Amino acid sequence: MAAASDAGQAGHHTSTGVDNRMLLMWIFLASECLFFATLISTYLIFQGESLIGPLPAEVLDIPLTSASTFVLLMSSVTMVLAVFGAQHGRPLMMKLSLLATILLGVGFLGFQAYEFTVFVHEGLTLSTNQFGSSFFLLTGFHGTHVGIGVLYLTSLLIGSTRRNGLGSDAGTHVEIAGLYWHFVDIVWIIIFTIIYLIPQ
Question: Domains in the chain: how many in total?
């Protein structure tokens, strides 16, 4: 029985000694880096070329977005706690931390939805000018990734309530989800810096 268990665990590792599921996530995130690099480059290329308003200085609310950024950064802290709980046999800690991460992620999406609504009311849409097009594409795709992450973590939380929880690989499952979540957070820090903090 032990030999079969060892064989099953060994089947998840590559010749590098890295779990193949973890390796797959790293490869996926590498492709996502290229995707976001393209969107960020597009934003930078067209930065300052809008001839009609509203312009960034007229609509960007740095205090509000700073608050949403803080919320997303705190979700990284709770994600770390969820991974720790999963890897150290503390299921309650894992579940509560996953729930906290999900709620913080939803909170960030709420901030973004509010910001988008305000911008539209002020006349900035996807087709208004170059800034609107690149801004909504970049931040919209990031928000989509956060939403996917929230669904991913929710599926783990629901799975953890089953009789066997997430199984013997709970630590790996949550760690892989954590990689995705931290990636989304890092991308947002870059987006926040480029759009909100660097002078136009």
Answer: 1
DSSP 1: -
pLDDT band at 1 (very low <50, low <70, confident <90, very high): very low
Query: Per the structure block, which two tokens stand in for 132?
Result: 């609107």
Range of the domain at 68: 19-197
**Would you say residue 152 has pLDDT above 90?**
yes
Comparison of pLDDT for 177 and 198, the residue scoring more: 177
Query: Is there a domain that residue 110 lies in?
Result: yes
Decide: residue 157, CB within 10 A, 0-12 exposed, 13-18 middle, 19+ buried. Answer: buried
Q: 104: which 2 tokens?
A: 């913080």
Per-residue model confidence (pLDDT) at position 6: 44
pLDDT in tens, 53-95: 788 888 999 999 999 999 999 999 999 999 999 999 899 999 9
DSSP per-residue letters across 25-89: HHHHHHHHHHHHHHHHHHHHHHTT---SS--HHHH--HHHHHHHHHHHHHHHHHHHHHHHHHHTT
In a domain, residue 109? The reply is yes
Largest CA distance in the chain: 71
Q: What CATH number does the domain containing 75 carry?
A: 1.20.120.80
Both tokens of 4, joined, read: 């079969």
Token duo for residue 159: 């799975």
* Cβ-contact 175, 87 below 8 angstroms: yes
